[in-house]
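Same chain as my last thread, 553 residues:
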Amino acid sequence: VLSHNLCTVLNVPHDPVALEEHFRDDDEGPVSNQGYMPYLNKFILEKVQGNFDKVEFNRMCWTLCAKKNLSKSPLLISEEDAFKVWVIFNFLSEDKYPLIIVPEEIEYLLKKITEAMGAGWQQEQFDHYKIALNTSREGLSAWELIDLIGSGQFSKGMDRQTVSMAINEVFNELILDVLKQGYMLKKGHKRKNWMERWFVLKPNIISYYVSEDLKDKKGDIILDGNCCVEALPDKDGKKCLFLIKCLDKTFEISASDKKKKQEWIQAIQSTVNLLRAGSPPPHKEARQKRKELRQKLLAEQEELERQMKELQAANENKQKELETVRKQLEAAAARAAEEEKKRLQTQVELQDRFSLELEREKMVRQKMEEQVAQKSSELEQYLQRVRELEEMYKQLQEALEDEKQARQDEETVRKLQARLLEEETAKRAELEKWHLQQQQTIQMTEAEKQELENQRMMKEQALQVAMEQLKQLELERKEALEQYEEVKKKLEMAANNTKSWKDKVAHHEGLIRLIEPGSKNPHLITNWGPAAFTEAELEERQRSWKGKKATSE
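reply #2:
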């Protein structure tokens, strides 16, 4: 029943299956507070969204605890007033369990109630009560606060109705965030008539009702940072007019007198200013400031007590140290008288010994300085040698890179020469084939002579083209040979450089060993190239072909 009612008040869906599952293994009798708290936190409080009626929730909590804790002695306030005092206590109490209200907040609450009743505040009486309270405890519980207000100790001469109205006014301000309320006339938007309404100003809204019992609500005026309030001159027989401008609507209102008009304008303007600044309501901000001030004073008091304890402990330690020093001084004075005689006797001996040791120390220092200078010179020579070796190693690396690049260029030229030789061999075979075909053509019959003559002309043209290509290949081969010679010269220069660096490295006690390329067999290259025609052979063959051609014609 408790869980279902909590879910209903907090607008949380109730899950009876989860309830049965949570307490399924609990067969040890009634559930204690500690046993119920895990279920309350997990299945109810964690699901709360904040869209619930806090007064109804407080009333339910009051129902659960009032019967057991409320005093049985007669009080000057009703149970409803006691409930409101209990809710105010929860708002003003400290944030630690068990909840108590400190004397500063008790004074603040009693002042608010006294001002609401229209009576004078009795500061002296409260100071006596505060002194008596501080000697026994830090503050009051909720039920002790209810007994204090219900006893009439600070409301003597006031009837029950006046006290009840004062408690209700303070409850509206602190709990319901009611900043101001009262009857005023409002002009309608459609019928343009003036109707008396009960207005309630809260931090972000003005609600208006038919009467102050708040049962028949007629509408709301939503306030934000863009709203403004302006005083209006009297018109249409209405006085004490002012205007509330919002984004979508404008409201004309008439107060009962000029004082009420000014109070409402100031209250609404202050609320709009708080909305623009994003500040909480004045009573909540004042509570927070009082709490911060108490925390600051408490921290300062604790710091002062800590400093006093430290000073006291330091003073005691100083006293002990002074006593110890006094005793040590007396003993030292006695020892000093005895040691003075010994000191005078040994002073001459010490002076002689000190002179000898000083001379010996000077000689040792001079030797050490000479050794340090020698070591510094050796170190400088060693560092110079290391720098020379590093520079030599860098130059050797550059020479090896040049040799590697020369070998790569040699390999590229060798591949190019091989490709040119292969192409030249193919052309030579093709030329020989065409020559044999031409000889066979000459031996053919006269009937085919004309046809063969045409073919011969075509083949001669092809032969001419082949000859030009052969010459071109010959030129490319010569260029390749020249490139090869140039690469060979570079390789020889790189080898000479490498050899010279070998000698240099060998001279420096073999600190660096060169990485040498593997041996290669020398390649023999002729002027003609492998299987290539010489110019004389080509001229001889060309004269032979021309002679055969003249004979055939």
